[in-house]
Write a structure and sequence with these properties.
Strand content: under 5%
Number of strands: 0
Helix content: over 70%
Structural class: mainly alpha
Radius of gyration: 18 Å
Mean pLDDT: 89
Shape: globular
Low-confidence stretches: none
Largest sheet: none
Order of helices and strands: HHHHHHHHHHHHH
Distance between the termini: 39 Å
Length: about 210
């Protein structure tokens, strides 16, 4: 984690990105976007957080490329799975005589394996953004939906399923499938990032 924090910090500062005086700022943004998914998913379903929950991670990912972007996305995906599927530790202990440490190890391996789709998303973020031009929020949202949909999952979980208690939103699934709701969620986060970047560019131009 320390090596990743230093690597992300060097990557951001290489692009002259102003950061608080700590190398943990970028990893904290990534971890927040990952861990908060547990509050958005059942049983809490705090979906009010969803339209902005990915904003910190997207802010970091949008300023990285290559290996750094991949590692940043992997951290988000792994932390999200670890937070959502924390019960794996208890399950391993309940159905075996294995110690808790083994359950934690299983959760870690599970999170790394099934959170890798987010690493692929982050790795391709820059290329998709360039290709989509001014409409890049919709391009990266489509890219995220594709990565999520083709990702093999032992316990299938998609961003869109968190909205199952809101029929007025979830009825979109009848037309687009759950990937359509995922697309809307990521689009909202990406549009928020685009708005922030536009505001910062205006301030810089004054």
């Amino acid at each position: 984690m320390c090596a990743l924090a230093s690597d992300l910090d060097r990557g951001l500062r290489k692009q002259a990105i102003a950061l608080p005086a700590t190398r943990w700022f970028a990893p904290s943004c990534l971890l927040f976007s990952g861990v908060v998914q547990a509050a958005i998913s059942p049983p809490l379903n705090w979906v009010v957080l969803h339209p902005l929950s990915w904003l910190p991670a997207l802010w970091v990912i949008s300023r990285l490329d290559g290996r750094r972007a991949l590692l940043a996305g992997w951290l988000v995906g792994a932390s999200a799975n670890a937070a959502i599927f924390y019960w794996i530790v208890h399950t391993v202990g309940s159905f075996s005589n294995l110690p808790t440490a083994v359950g934690v190890g299983v959760l870690g391996l599970f999170s790394l394996a099934f959170g890798f789709y987010c690493a692929v998303f982050a790795w391709g973020f820059a290329a998709v953004r360039r290709a989509a031009g001014r409409y890049w929020p919709f391009g990266v949202a489509a890219w995220f939906s594709i990565c999520e949909f083709v990702n093999p999952q032992l316990f299938p979980y998609y961003q869109g399923v968190a909205w199952y208690q809101l029929p007025s939103v979830f009825l979109v699934v009848s037309l687009t499938g759950v990937a359509g709701v995922t697309f809307l969620v990521i689009s909202a986060n990406a549009i928020a990032l685009q708005a922030l970047e536009w505001l910062r560019s205006r301030e810089a131009g004054r």
